[in-house]
Amino acid sequence: MKKFSLVAAGLITSVSLSLNAATVATVNGEKISDTEVNEFYAPMLRGQDFKKLPEAQQKALIQQYVMQDLILKDAKKQNLEKDPAYIKGLERAKDELLLNVYQNKIMQDIKVDAAKVKEAYEKNKEQFVKPARVKAKHILVTSEQDAKNIINELKNLKAKDLENKFAQIAREKSIDTGSAANGGDLGWFDESTMVKPFTDATFSLKKGEITKTPVKTNFGYHIILKQDSRAKEQVAFKDAKMGIENRLKFEEFQKRIALKGQELYKNAKVEIK
């Protein structure tokens, strides 16, 4: 993405309060609903439903919401809406909002021809490829000897016995606390995700196999268990279509907004000193 990034924030939505909203707090007799709190925290929750959060987390967010609301009311009591800084900031915010609406209207008018989307996919197929990936677990320790001892403890185990013992040792001994809690599980990753020695060792393993020697990186010494692998694969057009369409649409938007700016500039009386 190049310039005119304000368009990324230009989608303005209106969310109406639910008729079934439940009251989660009252402040000086005024009711606050779960819908209000959910709407307020929506950007932070990123799609999560406030009502489905753990009870302790819900209470913390409600308390935070109430405090912010009380501060806002106190600011109004102090007539800060008449403060020059507020007035100036409000005018600036209005201008930004107006610019967003202006740019959004241009975006809405742009239609991308389906044939062009398909053509862009066919001409750039190499860009729409999922890289080869592996699924693995690891145990990370600080000492090479400790790593060798763990490998000796695991080397004669197979299948489920190996998986279970590996997970047990990871939870007990791995210094990578993030993965240790999950038995050393790292999930799926491609060659670009991990440091090279770790990646090379993991991709060279067979499914269900562990490294025969410790793998040294700048983090320490790893014992790796490869669980599964997936070969490189082409992303289907139906899965790439929306992304291509959005890219072509944005490229057209950039052209139109630049031409519009040049046209307005040309027809205005501009003196740069």
UniProtKB/TrEMBL annotation:
Matches recorded under PROSITE patterns: PPIC_PPIASE_2 (PS50198)
The organism's place on the tree of life at top rank: Bacteria
Reaction(s) the record says it catalyses: [protein]-peptidylproline (omega=180) = [protein]-peptidylproline (omega=0)
Protein's recorded name: peptidylprolyl isomerase
EC number(s) reported in the record: 5.2.1.8
Any one GO molecular-function label of the UniProt entry: peptidyl-prolyl cis-trans isomerase activity
UniProt signal peptide: 1-21
Lineage: Bacteria, Pseudomonadati, Campylobacterota, Epsilonproteobacteria, Campylobacterales
Keyword annotations: Coiled coil, Isomerase, Rotamase, Signal
Record-annotated PpiC domain positions: 131-228
Organism: Campylobacter vulpis
Coiled coil: 140-172
Top-level enzyme category: isomerase
